[in-house]
Amino acid sequence: MQINGDPSLGFVLDLADETLVVIREVNGVAAQWASPSGKFLKAYDAILSVNGDQVDSKDISTKLKTTGAKSIGLGIARPTLVEVVLKKPGDLGITINYKKSSMGIWIATLKDGLVMQWNKDHPDKAIKPHDRIVTVNGKGGHSAVLVEMLRDQSETVTLQVMRYPKVA
């Protein structure tokens, strides 16, 4: 993808996950730009590379500030939304991470538990590290709200998860 012209690229990034750079908001020049296939940048898209170089949240700012560049090439991964229904009792078997400014909460690690069983039963919808939980039992919102919802004692936990293509 190329975004030409304006030095203010017009997107805000969620850099809370050290590995995966996620677009939080698109405006300005980025909101008006479309790829040759007609796709626009959207919230939750992940930036995997800048000008062909792989990036993470620690180095993306440096790579985006290419002095004198008239265009910047972005490698983008678009997530898919998957609904995951987990039946309790049992441990979810995930470690989650988030920051106050995070878009959703992201899965840091998987261990034995309900999510791992889900992955075995639904390999085409397998959840993996760096995927983002964006709603719990139909409710979205701030990351702290989602964490609290995960602690709910209801028998069924329904998650909407943004699944990303292979990362890192």
Quick structural gist:
With 168 residues, the chain is of the alpha+beta class. It folds into 2 domains: 76 residues, Roll (Pdz3 Domain); 84 residues, Pdz3 Domain. The protein contains 4 helices and 11 strands.
Could you characterize the architecture of this molecule?
There is one protein chain. Helix content is about 15%, strand content about 35%. With about 170 residues, the protein is an alpha+beta fold. It has two domains: about 1-75, Pdz3 Domain (Roll); about 80-165, Roll (Pdz3 Domain). Strands 1, 2, 3, 4, 5 and 6 form a six-stranded antiparallel sheet that branches. It has a five-stranded antiparallel sheet with strand order 7-11-10-9-8. The protein is elongated and about 55 Å long. It starts with a strand and ends in a 5-residue tail after the last strand. The model is unreliable at about 1-5 (pLDDT under 50).
Number of strands: 11
Work out the count of structural domains. Answer: 2
- The H/E string reads EEEHEEHEEEEHEHE
Average pLDDT, all residues: 82
- CATH topology title of the largest domain: Pdz3 Domain
Structural class: alpha+beta
- Biggest sheet overview: 6 strands, antiparallel
Q: Which architecture name of the largest domain does CATH use?
A: Roll
| Unreliable stretches | 1-7
CATH level 1 class label of the largest domain: Mainly Beta
Tally of contiguous helical segments: 4
Rounded to the nearest angstrom, the radius of gyration is 17 Å
In CATH, what is the homologous superfamily of the largest domain?
PDZ domain
β content, as a range? 25-35%
Range of helix content: 10-25%
Oligomerization state: single chain
**Gap from first CA to last CA:** 20 Å
Shape: elongated
